[in-house]
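Hi support team,

I submitted a single chain yesterday and got back a structure, but I'm not sure I'm reading the token output correctly. Could someone confirm the output below corresponds to the sequence I sent? I've pasted both exactly as they appear in my results page.

Thanks,
R.
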Amino acid sequence: MGAPGVGKASLLNALFGTDFPVGGTKEPPGRPELRESTGNTGHILKFWDMPGMADSWAGRPAMLDALITSDVVVWACHADARPAGCEGARLRELLDSAGPDHARRVGGRIAAVLTKADLLSPPPWIFDARGRRGSFVPGPALAARLERRAARAEQALLAPLGDLLTAATYPTADPEGRPAGILPADDGRLRGDRHAVRYRGHFSGSVHERYRDAHPEHADVLGRLRDDHRVIPCSARFRYNLPRLLLALATRVTPAAVFRFQRMLDDAAALAELPASAVARHANLVRWDGERCRPAVAGPAC
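Hi R., thanks for writing in. Yes, this is the structure output for that exact sequence:
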């Protein structure tokens, strides 16, 4: 989901190796459109291209059906634009019309992202070169700016969904390596067993602090639950935060999958890498030697 031009197709192509056309200026669909592509594993992947929440609701029944039957829902918002305050309320209205069971099912599958984070500069991005490859990371000032924008998007998109959301993760193991779980909270929202820990509702920053103070021995589990409801800044062009987003999508499928996926993060980290020789193509500045009429720096930008 997301407004036209936020980079949904670019993000899917970077994540899954699909070949959806990008940069189009077509009119937004008035109803969900099914798109298929072969991913980098050779599997056929199916995606519903959803109308924006602020667009016409002519396809409202089809929108509900697409949301209910999807494994995960990626909600994209442009990192360099203020999210529409009505979008979260509109989605809440749509889900409420589906009944509580379907509404909570969809709410537990939503991962919200800020797309095109590479357009935020200055402050600068940093290319962390490791030999012939490397990855883009934001500098401290830019990281703080992204965090503020992600927090604002969380309030606009996720907060209105409230109790329809679900955060889930795997339990921390005890000293013998067995899943330790987490004690249920008095309000019944936080529950855990040997397989998973779940919180029903929006696990906001303030909720996280309250439970962390009450259960300091489970700080790691509570931190992962908080991460489940953070909006993830990412960039298809810089391949920034793609492993983190892939992990978030695995969380929506099943918390147990995340435990297995954590052990694969070293391999998944390659998803964020780019050849050092290609970095110059991603820079938005070129040093030019006016006397010789050629670029002043022949190699990749530093």
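A quick pointer for reading it: Residues 234 and 241 are 5 Å apart (CA to CA). Let us know if anything else looks off.

Best,
Support desk
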